[in-house]
Design goal:
8 helices, 7 strands
Length: 302
Amino acid sequence: MQLVINPRSPKSRKFPITLVLDGTPATVRVEDVQAAIAEKFPQLYVDRQRLTVEKTALEQGKTLSEYGLKDGDSVTFKDLGPQISWRTVFLIEYGGPLLIHPLIYYLPSLFYSRTFEHSMMQTVTFWMVMLHFLKREYETVFVHRFSHGTMPFRNVFKNSAHYHLLSGLNLAYWVYGPWNAAGTVLGERSRTVIYGCIALYAFAELSNLKTHVTLRNLRPPGTRVRKIPRGYGFDLVSCPNYFFETLAWLAVSVLTLSWSAHLFLVVAVGQMYIWAVKKHKGYRKEFPDYPRGRKAMFPFVA
């Protein structure tokens, strides 16, 4: 069969082209078309390609006939630009705080021009943050299975800034400073507050890990299968992983009483809620039998 590939940009010098594909619209899949384009233009590897028909994106695994395409029809091509894997993006994002926090915590003379003894609050906060991001790195390598393999390379800088600046430099500098050192009024916390925050943090992090394992087990290796998540946390909300992460950072915020921790909490929760609502709506649209009683992120609320 023949398929015309039209460019989205009128300035394109490569397109339009006509591909001759082995098979019929009922047997030729979207990935066959992408492979043919990549063979003709090696720099346009599959992850850089976006094919659409009347603004509907073509998904891998589906045949052309599923989109009503016939022999001689056309689709629109868009070059998404250089790509980077989501796994690499996450490793870069979480690696920032793992480098920044130890530098500021262990080398205070470089940042505050003096040395001092850290308070228990500062030490507990340091290990909370380090364990959180070490867990995230572990999940990135051994737990997560990504529905989308890549993202535009240019976005890695925007994504990393959220972690490197807000939960990295900004949080570390203001929490580990001499104004919160041992013996200062600002650095003092009761044992009840400290241990209470540790308990909330531990519960939240372990619960977050459990929900990530549940999501991982929904998708067989090497596939993009989507199913309705069920079980711990998911009976109440569509994104319990975001809810439990909110609790973890709430523990850090309550423990430090720092405006920098409060700022990161507000920004992070706001962004996670936007993602949760989008995923919640996607679940309800994709699965007719999706549980109606679930909220997006906050149990019984929203």
